[in-house]
Write a structure and sequence with these properties.
The complex is a heterodimer.
Chain A lengths: L1 H7 L1 H11 L1 H10 L5 H4 L1 H17 L5 H34 L6 H11 L6 H10 L4 H28 L3 H35 L1
Chain B lengths: L1 H33 L13 E8 L8 E2 L2 E2 L3 H13 L3 E10 L1 E3 H16 L4 E10 L1 H6 L4 E4 L4 E3 L4 E2 L5 H7 L23 H26 L3 H4 L7 E2 L1 H6 L5 E2 L2 H11 L8 E2 L5 H13 L20 E4 L3
Parallel strand pairs in B: 1-4, 1-12, 4-6, 6-7, 6-8, 7-11
Antiparallel strand pairs in B: 2-3, 5-13, 8-10, 9-13
Helix pairs in contact in B: 2-3
Chain lengths: ~200, ~325
């Protein structure tokens, strides 16, 4: 059954929509045809390995690479998957503040598929590394660009999910970043004060 | 839609291809730089040489902070016990970088090393920048002493110092009320001149500690005390002079000391070294600790901070 599903190439539509048409991506997720929840976790796994390869290409190449590409990949995948789930939970929470129905499962799928554009970082950076033309700058540049692309996928998906305008969908998307950022900021300040107090007394 | 699907599959195939090329590229670069590629160097195993480090002023209780600190005599002895009990340790190198320290702490380390030497464990002293006074006392317990050409050593002698603040106190109009149980209870007080009787008492302690120093060095170096006495006047000397006066056996580095240890214990040239070096994380914490507690690169003198306990008899090179 899984083989038939793979052969049908219906899963490819999800990837294609995540690149070209996020609204269609959401509609496909909503139809649950094909079942996308498990499949969506392939995206963090692919993105994790691509990011490790890209950073290894740009950085110092030592035998530690083999650890990065095996254990490090699993670690990064788990972190990425956890981050997706936390972001999905917080976005779902923000949606409910607006009075919309909770839908965490679809949020997780949407966020996971929104990671897909980030896989292009490897071929893009590779070109500049081959020509040795400011690869680090272009890594930062493309990373930002692809991050914005991923964000747009989620925002449009949320807009389609709750039939809301782009502004509200952006607010929902930014809610986890604002909440986590503010909390971490204050936590760091308090930790630094406590740390300095502990050391200096 | 089929056409789009095929296009996407092509994109995915290209991504897989670029990933494979990246892996091959990285692996080839590594092989060029590191030869065999993967180099799995595990922790050292088998018979080898143990290293003990004595750094900074020698005290029974070292300077400690939440991030670490200077090793104390007790820690050094604990480390020596560990090495003694470890069946893989065939020789010990004592790395000394110390101007000396308190008499009691120095003698404890000396006696521990001497006991190990009696057990026929080859012990080699490797002197760093300075191994003077108490630092040399400890080194003399070792079978072989290796010093650098520029090592400051010698300073065989005993010293006790106390500040005399009487003049300052008089200027400031401060007087100290002392209630004591005996006439010598405030001996070496910083608030008055020392009396001839008190000086005599302290001199006796100094002389006794000096005789013990001389005796122990002579025993360790297998020299007579009369041969040692002419140079045991507190003078410091460099590595070359120390070799001339037979205070050290050879000039060389820490590596030379390790080689000598391997040679004396009949170990192979590549026998492992069991050092007590800090991990990079511990080093980072130690550095941070030093920064926050005001400790610099040079070793702080705790006497500067401990006014009350300002008299102590030391095997110490005054810098």
């Amino acid at each position: 059954m899984i083989l038939n599903e793979l052969k049908s190439l219906r899963w490819a539509d999800l990837l294609l929509y995540s690149l070209l048409d996020p609204r269609s991506l959401y509609r496909q997720i909503n139809r649950n045809e094909p079942k996308a929840f498990t499949l969506s976790f392939v995206m963090p796994a692919i993105v994790a390995i691509v990011e490790i390869l890209t950073l290894s290409l740009l950085g110092k190449q030592t035998p530690f690479f083999y650890y990065k590409v095996t254990y490090g990949w699993i670690l990064l995948f788990l972190c990425q998957a956890l981050a997706s789930m936390i972001a999905a939970s917080l976005m779902d929470m923000a949606s409910q503040f607006f009075g919309w129905k909770g839908n965490i499962r679809e949020f997780i799928i949407l966020i996971n598929f929104s990671l897909f554009p980030r896989v292009f970082i490897l071929p893009l950076v590779y070109i500049f590394r081959v020509f040795n033309f400011a690869p680090l700058f272009f890594h930062a540049f493309f990373s930002l660009g692809l991050l914005v692309w991923s964000a747009l996928v989620v925002i449009q998906g949320v807009s389609e999910m709750h039939s809301c305008n782009f502004g509200k969908a952006t607010l929902v998307f930014l809610f986890p970043a604002i909440l986590i950022g503010t909390t971490l900021f204050f936590m760091m300040i308090l930790l630094a004060i406590c740390g300095i107090g502990y050391i200096s007394i | 839609m089929d056409r789009n699907r095929k296009l996407l599959i092509s994109i995915l195939a290209l991504l897989v291809l670029s990933s494979v090329i990246a892996i091959v590229d990285i692996s080839m670069n590594m092989q060029q730089k590191h030869g065999m590629g993967i180099s799995l160097t595990g922790p050292p195993v088998g018979p080898g040489v143990g290293v003990v480090r004595i750094e900074g002023p020698i005290q029974l209780n070292g300077i400690q902070s939440p991030f670490g600190g200077m090793p104390s005599a007790e820690q050094v002895i604990r480390r020596l016990n560990e090495l003694e009990q470890n069946g893989d340790i065939r020789a010990i190198v004592v790395r000394i970088n110390s101007p000396g320290g308190t008499v009691g702490a120095t003698q404890e380390i000396y006696e521990k090393l001497w006991r190990l030497r009696k057990k026929n464990i080859p012990i080699i002293a490797s002197m760093g920048e300075i191994a003077a006074s108490g630092g040399y006392y400890i080194a003399s317990a070792c079978n072989v002493i290796v010093a650098n050409h520029g090592t400051i050593t010698g300073s065989i002698g005993v010293i006790a110092m106390s500040p005399n603040l009487r003049g300052l106190f008089e200027k400031l109009g401060i007087s100290m009320t002392v209630i004591k149980s005996g006439r010598y209870k405030d001996i070496l007080s910083a608030f008055r001149e020392i009396s001839p009787e008190e000086r005599q008492l302290i001199q006796e302690i100094i002389d006794s500690s000096y005789r013990k120093f001389l005796k122990d060095v002579a025993r360790g170096r297998q020299m007579s005390e009369s041969d040692l006495e002419p140079i045991a006047d507190g003078r410091v000397m460099g590595g070359e002079s120390a070799l001339k006066y037979k205070l050290v056996d050879a000039l060389g580095t820490f590596e030379d000391a390790l080689d000598k240890a391997r040679q004396l214990s009949k170990l192979s040239e590549d026998a492992p070294v069991y050092d007590e070096t800090r991990t990079p994380f511990e080093q980072l914490l130690f550095d941070i600790g030093g920064r926050f507690t005001g400790q610099g690169i040079t070793v702080p003198d705790p006497r500067g901070l401990q006014f009350e306990n300002s008299y102590r008899v030391e095997y110490r090179c005054v810098q």
